[in-house]
Design brief:
Strand content: 5-15%
CATH class: Alpha Beta
Low-confidence stretches: none
Structural class: alpha/beta
Shape: globular
Order of helices and strands: HEHHHHEHHEHEHEHEHEHHEHHHH
Largest sheet: 8 strands, parallel
Bound molecules: adenine, zinc ion
Distance between the termini: 15 Å
Strand order of the largest sheet: 1-2-3-4-5-6-7-8
CATH superfamily: Metal-dependent hydrolases
């Protein structure tokens, strides 16, 4: 471990862009398949990993949705969530905001309450046992219809107080944010915070739509906004938080090499950038690995890494008390880290 790796390991941080279903490691997938009598096309961890070779977002999504088929009971969702929390705790994540895709489960006959109940019990245990605070963000699948989105919002209402916000994920190309303008307006009226994936593969116009038509409080990915200087200036002025996912961008071929990643340019443009893992079981690294890989590839120094960690708290949906406590921990660490 280099000195910089040690610095990163100790840095208190928040993760703001992580799909729970994307933290399903092959070993757990196989174990749950066995527990639930589900057939998978892979018999071993190695065979599953060999299939994780993607040219674009859709290649990944096809495997990601197939993987979700092993998740059936509240215990499965608990085990999935707990495995992630135990892992990210070792990266010194003190706060996490997790996406989940209810439509990937309700379409298979798994009840909303089963999904959220299992996730919640693990979040509660992490709060009690590890002091990790958390928020849940319900993502609508953008390849499905607006009507299906509205039905999902309705199904979420009994759990309104346990869901901080709504998001938009899945296949970006051909499914612009404008398709969900009315759904997001309704979610906003109900008091949900709003985020959306935009500019991962889609053009800068999709980012503009996410801001103007969905009223987003935070932007997931956003990389392609850089192609439009006027948009960058607007996002800088509004202090929009970007949840950037370096290893995801590499594995989905948004960048050919991590050395070409736009994160440094985003920081230099004054954007509020954060580092996240997206789907760590599929993209080869959890939160700490994303920090280490991007620091190495772009030659980021301690000050830049501290900014990324600070941004993760500033851009989070923590309460003001939680945020000031987290920033205090970060400042205390920076004051003592050699
Ligand atoms: N669902 C899970 N991961 C995703 C990603 N990176 N982009 C869009 N939808 C997703
Ligand atoms: Zn994502």
């Amino acid at each position: 471990m280099t000195a910089l790796d040690g610095f990163i390991a100790g840095l208190p941080k928040a993760e703001l862009h992580m799909h729970l279903e994307g933290s399903l490691e092959p070993a757990l997938m196989l174990a749950l398949a066995k527990r639930n009598g589900v057939e998978l096309p892979y018999a071993t961890v190695e065979a599953a990993e060999a299939a994780y070779d993607f040219d674009e977002l859709q290649d990944f999504l096809d495997l990601y949705y197939r993987g979700t088929s092993v998740l059936r009971t509240a215990e499965d969702f608990h085990d999935l969530t707990w495995a992630y929390l135990e892992r990210v705790r070792r990266d010194n994540a003190i706060h996490v905001e997790l996406f989940f895709d209810p439509q990937a489960h309700t379409a298979r006959g798994v009840a909303f309450v089963t999904v959220i109940g299992g996730i919640e019990s693990a979040l509660l245990a992490a709060r009690r046992q590890c002091g990790i605070t958390s928020r849940l963000i319900l993502c609508f699948l953008r390849h499905l219809s607006e009507a299906e989105g509205f039905a999902t919002l309705e199904a979420a209402l009994p759990f309104r107080d346990r869901i901080a916000g709504v998001g938009l994920d899945s296949s970006e190309r051909g499914h612009p944010p404008s398709k969900f303008a009315r759904l997001f307006r309704k979610a906003g009226e109900l008091g949900f915070l709003r985020v959306a994936h935009a500019g991962e593969e889609g053009p800068p116009d999709y980012v503009r739509e996410a801001v103007d038509l969905l009223g987003i409080d935070r932007l997931d990915h956003g990389n392609r906004a850089l192609e439009d200087p006027a948009l960058v200036e607007r996002l800088r002025k509004m202090q929009m938080t970007f949840t950037v996912c370096p290893l995801s961008n590499l594995r989905l071929k948004g960048v050919a090499r991590l050395e070409d990643h736009p994160l440094r340019r985003m920081l230099e443009a004054g954007l509020r950038v954060t580092v996240n893992s997206d789907d760590p079981a599929y993209f080869g690294g959890y939160l700490g690995e994303n920090y280490r890989a991007i620091a190495r590839a772009l030659g980021l120094d301690r000050a830049a890494l501290a900014t990324l960690a600070r941004n993760s708290f500033l851009g989070s949906f923590m309460t003001p008390e939680e945020r000031s406590a987290a920033l205090g921990r970060l400042d205390a660490y920076l004051a003592t880290a050699g």
